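Repro case for the chain-ordering regression, as requested:
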Amino acid sequence: MVDIAGWIFDHTATVGNGPGPLRKEWRRSLEVTNCGLAIDRLKLPDRVLWRFNVAAPAKRVEQLDRVVIRFAGDSGDGMQLTGDRFTSETAQLGNDISTLPNFPAEIRAPAGTLPGVSSFQVHFADYDILTPGDAPNVLVAMNPAALKANLAELPAGADIIVNTDEFTKRNLSKVGYAVSPLEDGSLDGYAVHPVALTSMTIGALAETGVAKKDAERAKNMFALGLLSWMYSRPFESTLRFLERKFAKRPDLVEANKTAFQAGWNYGETTEAFTVRYEVKPARMRPGTYRNITGNQALALGLVASAVRSRLPLFLGAYPITPASDILHEISKHKRFGITTVQAEDEIAAIGAALGASYGGALGVTTTSGPGVALKSETISLAIALELPLVIVDVQRAGPSTGMPTKTEQADLNMALFGRHGEAPLAVIAPRSPSDCFHAALEASRIALTYRTPVILLSDNYVANGSEPWMLPSVDELPDISVAFTTAPNAPDGKFLPYLRDPETLARPWAIPGTPGLEHRIGGLEKADKTGDISYDPANHEHMVRIRQARIDAIPVPDVDVEDPQENARVLVLGWGSTYGPIGAACRALRQRGLPIAQAHLRHLSPLPANLGEVLAGYDKVVVPEMNLGQLASVIRAKYLIDAMPFNQVSGLPFTAATLESMLEDVVKNG
Amino acid sequence: MADTIPLTPVKLTAKDFKSDQEVRWCPGCGDYAILAAVQQFMPELGIPRENIVFVSGIGCSSRFPYYMNTYGMHSIHGRAPAIATGLSTSRPDLSVWVVTGDGDALSIGGNHLIHALRRNVNLKILLFNNRIYGLTKGQYSPTSEIGKITKSTPAGSADSPFNPLSLALGAEATFVARTIDSDRKHLQSVLRAAAGHEGSAFVEIYQNCNIFNDGAFDLIKDPSARDEHLIRLEQGRPITFGADDRFSVVHPEGSFGLKVQEGGSAIVHDATVDDPAYAFALSRLSGSELTTTPIGVFRDVQRPSYDEIVRKQVLDARAQSTGTPEEMLGELLSAGDTWTIL
Ligand SMILES: Cc1ncc(C[n+]2csc(CCOP(=O)(O)OP(=O)(O)O)c2C)c(N)n1
Ligand code: SF4
Ligand SMILES: [Mg+2]
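-- result from build under test --
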């Protein structure tokens, strides 16, 4: 056996040298042939060089239907980027994909520690999938912390690719390993692939002339190259990406490409990996796709709302995890006539958005739970003013600062009820990352058509998760434009700012700058039609009721029930981001012959008109939520049925397996 | 005044600015005088009524928009500057006025006020300072003198007041002025200057609340006493006051501030001095006691307004792109790595 500390690659074969760098002139002197197993000893001036003339050994290729890979490393290791690239390659191949990143809460926790572990999970399959996968089949652990943080979630037999270079005494002790888990037998139940990722990357880049630090940082590309080889991914998009990303540093383009190539070649040549896998493309509807996260999709949905409403979009926002990305994304698209204001706080952010709506813009504010709490008073004002406004709440685990990078659905009560007075509004929730696009358009449509604030309840799980999205044709997006009122609306030539459209119950939107329609609005109770201040008891009674009635009357699509065998007695009712795990659990049950029906709510206020009837059709209704039963309480109160809550508030999304076993029990035992 | 606001050829009158709503302040309230002064001044602007918007918060003073026959919004407590920021930035064709009180602007809404000023949003902010919470029936406010006995402070308030002008100057305001409800001519001259200023104009108006804080400004209103206390700032004129101009505002050698003394060489007022230290020093002449109180324009300097900068970014971005919005959207949606399934 030869001890190899560094590797040099070219495109036809792999050459390894003994410890120490290989000089250019030596390399030139090496004639690389493609002769299989031969290993030559080459006498060079100051050392012995081992030359490996290695033809790619024939590797077994296995077909898989699905794989879940988790890339885990220190937050400085570039795991998110690695995962993103792998996802993109996988998308190019045509697999269905679902991804989920897991960021550390700290920006830069001390290197090598457990809090500093950042990971990215990608699930891909040759059929349509609904979740990023319960547990990974493959873990790439760039250091001991990454191994330790993720090991508990690995099923027995899973592949673990570890970067052995980082398993130093110091790094091991940082996470409390007295003995290296690579040596003490504790990983015996897994298929461990020790790979000297760092040193092989440095070795591969020895000749490129990049600084050692830059070479070391390219180790994620080595890992990506290796995984891309293992799963037979097309990598052209990654090479193109590297050219774009490092456009200003050609040396880094080269370094990263070389590292990628080295990783690929390593897979191809080393005996450590004997099998290569293929996952055939999934059958997906014809169209052009891109991979998209929920936050990106939501931002694009808002941009699309501006285009399809023909209104300037005004975004007022105050940075907060996990909603800030939406502000970042939209800020890049001012060319659509979009104004973004980073306000001094959430109250100012929504205030500015409401002011813009008053002036005839599509006012939007994006935030997370703590921000919605601050905005609550202004939302009530918007309800009294009956102006359009979109409030995006990307939910995170609360209360208070809670776990800002973790997910939860616990703001539903706040969205539905968290305001003073009777203050109804529309609430909708996207079910998946790409659905955020359509949900944003729908929120804008309702806000504009019915002159109401709309709360859009996303959450960290959909916001940062990604999936393929079939690009919609712009012309087919709904036209959500509305007309401003420009002329008096009363028979006597007066303008009545609270005279309603009989169909939508919306009041006129007469914006400043419209001659003859000057009027005053405010938070004080308004007399019906005239909008003048009124303390009349009967008027208040009427106004409170009509504000509720107009929200109740917003037409929303009926809820669909998925029950392919049409014999289910148990219905699972979910809302928002639990769609994926619930759907996956239901499929698994049905495959095992257990009938189950799934209904999923996008509209939480108003609820679909057919919901009561749907619920009444089942013996049992189960409501899984990432809260303590908020929707379940609404359902119980409103429909008087014994809805069964099933709750998880760990900051993590449901796994399909958790739901499957719970639902199995309900289906079997009632 | 921003040249993006249209002008009307029609000559408007004070009456055109009176709404049909019954004015409901307490009889004798200083707000009436301010309302009348504003309504009378408005035609001077030459701006059509529909392009004028009054946005207010909550308080007696904040009822103001209801009485103006323009567009108006009576919003929520303290938030008017935030709401007006959104309106003003998205609508360059509007003249946006904020009406607020000492509690509204300096207590609950303090944050929005300072940020509107630092951004230099194109707003004319009128702060009716009666040094009391009127609408909630007489609690002390952030401008009440320390030791103020009110319903909520029977033993006297313990907190030092804000000097609103010092605060505004500290917040980088580009236009800062003070006037008095009862001096219509002066009030209107300050409004004129404020309206002509591009960016945020902050105007403190001393306003008498005859119910809960009557006589708060008597020292500078009483014809027999006021001349000894009121310092009228006039651009380009030495700052002197009192009978026969016996008092001068001077800059003592070696001192950071200004001071009032009998005789001496008065400094010449220049509101356009770039260094805010000057206006700040002027603002410090008046303490809680009002014994030497400057009124007029303290500071009036030029800085690009927030509205202008933000709008320019949008216009530039638009100018640099081609295609219809739909085409641009199509491009945006399909940006990055895409793949096609046939
Ligand atoms: C959120 C909220 N908190 C408290 C109030 C009660 N409130 C109304 S006006 C006011 C103080 C007003 O004082 P000021 O701004 O000085 O106005 P004035 O009435 O003196 O003109 C208070 C505390 C409110 N309307 N809203
Ligand atoms: S309480 Fe004072 S401020 Fe309010 S209306 Fe009456 S007098 Fe005016
Ligand atoms: Mg007051």
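Ordering looks correct now. Residues B 58-61, 77, 101-104, 128, 130, 132-136, 141 surround thiamine diphosphate (ligand 1) (CB under 6 Å).
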